[in-house]
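Researcher: Sequence recovery benchmark, item below. Answer with residues only.
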């Protein structure tokens, strides 16, 4: 297969991954009627961890102490992010849950500023303003003449975005020195462990009766196998053949799919104001993630030329 065909197939794979994640918001929203949010995470991460461990069992030969420590930290952050997102979905719509989650795209460079001592570009700050405006239009509401307020589910979803952003920053840090697949298996395993510990306290007794419901069983398998394991693998494989700017665009379609599936399958209503809010948030994602990468890519030929000229001058001096 030619490189061009690889790129086309990989682009389709990234869009498919985004669609899987978008549909997952509908699955979560529907499943919350039968299973508690944290029990759902316990099933989801356990299925994903077991499946990935079976597929990548040879990776365990690389195991050392740092993997356990880093896997535990990433697992705790991942569990926290999904817990806030899943509980938040209980109190808001699947579409709003999908779009508000994407705030992490803007938060990553902002939170990374003090951590990595790297100041974000101007586009990041513009994106932040667009995002906050979009969140206001999407989530804030005025009921019975009261002051503008935000649904608790929307607040929890925004908190989830903070944890996602911190999780991404630490993944980027740890992946530089360790095998990303083994690290992923471990963080899924630790996220599952934290879920099993927290579920009885937060959701009550084990939902044994729900597991006799095939609708619940299929939903948990979808979340564990497709939304967690397969979508992750698609992302990692396809990123090798698709430019990062284009890949970011395709993956950000997750929020669009979330709204689309929520509207069609759950009959969620979107007002014009909420649609404008979604458009602003999506524009902020493009501005913060895609445009800087395009600019960087366009500057590389120039920088490459400058480096070549510098090497030539150095060679002449010698």
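Model:
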């Amino acid at each position: 297969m030619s490189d061009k065909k690889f790129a086309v197939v990989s682009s389709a794979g990234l869009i498919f991954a985004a669609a899987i994640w978008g549909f997952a918001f509908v699955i979560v929203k529907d499943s919350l009627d039968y299973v508690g949010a944290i029990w759902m995470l316990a099933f989801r991460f356990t299925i994903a961890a077991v499946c990935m461990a079976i597929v990548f069992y040879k990776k365990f030969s690389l195991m050392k102490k740092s993997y356990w420590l880093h896997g535990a930290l990433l697992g705790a952050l991942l569990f926290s992010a999904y817990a806030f997102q899943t509980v938040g979905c209980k109190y808001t719509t699947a579409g709003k849950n999908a779009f508000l989650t994407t705030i992490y795209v803007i938060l990553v460079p902002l939170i990374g500023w003090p951590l990595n001592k790297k100041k974000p570009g101007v586009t990041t700050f513009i994106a932040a303003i667009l995002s906050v405006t979009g969140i206001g239009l999407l989530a804030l509401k005025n009921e019975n003449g009261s002051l503008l307020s935000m649904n608790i589910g929307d607040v929890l979803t925004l908190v989830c975005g903070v944890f996602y952003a911190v999780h991404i920053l630490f993944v980027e840090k740890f992946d530089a020195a360790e095998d990303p697949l083994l690290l992923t298996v471990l963080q899924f395993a630790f996220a599952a462990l934290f879920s099993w510990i927290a579920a009885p306290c937060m959701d009550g007794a084990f939902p044994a009766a729900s597991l006799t419901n095939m609708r619940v069983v299929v939903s948990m398998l979808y979340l564990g196998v497709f939304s967690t394991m397969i979508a992750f693998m698609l992302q990692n494989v396809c990123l090798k053949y698709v430019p990062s700017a284009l890949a970011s665009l395709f993956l950000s379609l997750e929020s669009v799919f979330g709204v689309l599936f929520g509207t069609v399958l759950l009959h969620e209503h979107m007002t014009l104001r909420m649609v404008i809010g979604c458009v602003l948030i999506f524009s902020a994602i493009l501005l913060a993630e895609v445009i800087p990468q395009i600019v960087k890519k366009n500057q590389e030929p120039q920088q490459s030329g400058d480096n070549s000229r510098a090497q030539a001058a150095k060679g002449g001096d010698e």
